[in-house]
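Running log. JK asked me to keep both predictions on one page so they can be read side by side. First protein, sequence followed by its tokens:
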Amino acid sequence: MSESWTGKWGYDTGRDGIYRGDCLTPQQAAELAIEELGMEDGQFVEVGQYRDPTSPESYVDAEIILEHVACQDDYQGDFAEGWPGVRKPAIEELDAAITEVFAKWLDKHGARPWWFRVDEKTIRKFEMIDGQAVALV
């Protein structure tokens, strides 16, 4: 299973949109940017908080799978009308079963996301002033 990025902070160089760093606070991320980028007074850096991507298995939808099957040639026509003909609890049961199998498959094959997303709501801007990273409000 991959490491969780949730709650960690990093900085954007402003050149490539890629966040770097593995910091516990926004201030630490800004200070890391100063150190690694050799920032000078008057320069700015954005820092943001990482979050893990949503788990792939949370996107499983049994209704979509059933609909896909129902669109195949063997399921077209009056004879297949109303297939599979089950109630919502049965579809929820299928959802749960597929989700469980998919999660096990992801873990078995190391296919879980290894990347992070930057939560746009957490982005903060810092300016280099007198050799210090100062948070801008």
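And the second, directly underneath as requested:
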Amino acid sequence: MNPWKVIWNSYYEKSTTLKFFKNVYGISTRKEKIILSVLAFFFFTGIASLLILPVVNLPISQEILFWFVVFGELGLIFQIGKLKNKFIKNEFGDVSQSQTPHDDKNHKTSRYLTFKKALEDNWVTKKHVQDCQELIDLQIDIASSEGLLRKKFSRFVIGGIGLGILGIFWSKIDVLYLIYISAILIPISLLIYFVLYLIPSKLEKLKEMKYFMLLYSREFEISNKCVI
């Protein structure tokens, strides 16, 4: 057994945010899948309509479209929360004694439990995890260096383009055009946030993977002490 490969696959193939949503959707009943589809339709239709509203005359007001987005987003949050609890109960039973994450942001609890189960199924011990600490630290250092370069480049490009556009059009922009720009930027920002939520950066994933490894090591040690 290659412990590092098992740990890596247990996180990247089973415990990421995107995998979590696939698992939740997989355990949903037909009725629950229909509800999720309807709510997603409201959310994405609202965003898409807000994007084209400034250039296409739609037979619906901007306020109603915003309510479409709000209704779809809140409904998805509520429904996914219910399905998450159902997933945890069906897959892991009572988890009150587990060393779960201190918060459930980005559904960490269910994803950590999935990660933990994958390691246990492959007989990964605390020593295996500790032996891989140097490798995960090295991966984090590499990702940090790559991320810093991309961030600097993105700031340079976006800042340069933004200043150029403002310099050219500022004198010609009127209030109505600014409203149109705002109407476009709001749904674009929501869509970007949703994509970033589903697909976090490589550095974020690696840091979370290290966090899961530390939790697993601690829980493994506590479990062994209880057995002794």
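Observation for JK regarding the second prediction: The mean pLDDT is 78.
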